[in-house]
Amino acid sequence: MNRQFDKTALNRRTVDEITGGRRMRRNRRADWTRRLVRENSLSTNDLIWPVFLIPGKNKSEDIAAMPGVQRVTPDIAARQAEEAAKLGIPAIATFPNIAPELRDETGSNALAADNLINQTTRLIKERVPDIGVITDVALDPFTSHGHDGILRDGIVVNDETVVQLAEAAVLQAEAGADIIAPSDMMDGRIGAIRDALDTNGFSDVGIMSYATKFASGFYGPYREAIGTQDLLKGDKRSYYIDPANSDEAVRDAALDIEEGADMLMVKPGLPYLDIVWRLKESFGMPTFAYQVSGEYAMIKAAAQNGWLDGERAMLESLIAFKRAGCDGILTYFAPEAAKLLSQS
């Protein structure tokens, strides 16, 4: 049955009467007004570029699950650091794909002064001394089982791992790392690393704590990138945070702050914007998020299939982090976003 729309009731009240004269579209009507009232902004200063490393010289390897991202040798990583500096990106973060023959049950290569991470840091600092270098002391790239710590009888042992992480952090600082970013989620590792750095004369080296790293399904492409996807025995739920828990994440962050963290990180990013907001509101600390490999891959894959505008979705995802309270974002989009931002 077709019913005739009765405009009589609507005509009794004008839109101005309905809204009380409040017209939200006034501030949206032109580009200049939209820019004038914009609450959050994104700039190259907000970006940290994660770089994957392989041994050798002048080599790169495409990562199938991360279109546009490559593993690179230290010399190319140094060239990328030069590119980052020219684009205005403040820092890069390095993640190694360690040769299989160097991986063992305890991740002992993490304690080699000239391992892949430390080689790369030295080279970058020689070429681009003013760019920030952020390094991770987690053991998963170095272990034969893919866990972030030392495995004993099927259990990732906390305290023994912490000792090794602290020693590795000092070696990374000696190589020139500006910020140590422990992603392992062992209890007490922030305090142990802070003590080790201070005791060994590196009190100026900061700690960006992966304060809330969740047992997420979004890490798959990253594990391909560092070569651990086929190594992992079991899962990481005994030390990463349950995705269902937000109060626990806040308590974890509070402990890391007590132990000496200078900055906090939330990982993954977009699915955990509520955690970013809670940490920023609770502690007022410099707070970062890692837009992880799975988040990157989803946007890239959808764009390649023509399902969405890749550039627009990328920038929209990055501004979401700023809106939630982030001071910066680790993102594989960093060079692409920086180039776009320089044109705007």
From TrEMBL:
Give Gene Ontology CC terms: cytosol
- Give the EC number(s) listed in the UniProt record: 4.2.1.24
User: InterPro entries this protein is in?
Assistant: ALAD (IPR001731), ALAD_AS (IPR030656), Aldolase_TIM (IPR013785)
Active site: residue positions: 213, 267
Q: Which family does it belong to?
A: Belongs to the ALAD family.
Q: Give any GO molecular function from the UniProt entry.
A: porphobilinogen synthase activity
Quote the Pfam families the UniProt record gives: ALAD
Which reaction(s) does its UniProt entry say it catalyses? 2 5-aminolevulinate = porphobilinogen + 2 H2O + H(+)
Its pathway, per UniProt, is:
Porphyrin-containing compound metabolism; protoporphyrin-IX biosynthesis; coproporphyrinogen-III from 5-aminolevulinate: step 1/4
List, alphabetically, the CDD domains matched: ALAD_PBGS_aspartate_rich
Q: Domain of life, per the record?
A: Bacteria
Gene Ontology biological process terms from the UniProt entry: heme biosynthetic process
Question: What are the entry keywords?
Answer: Heme biosynthesis, Lyase, Porphyrin biosynthesis
Q: What is this protein called?
A: Delta-aminolevulinic acid dehydratase
Assembly and interaction partners = Homooctamer.
Gene3D superfamilies documented for this protein: Aldolase class I (3.20.20.70)
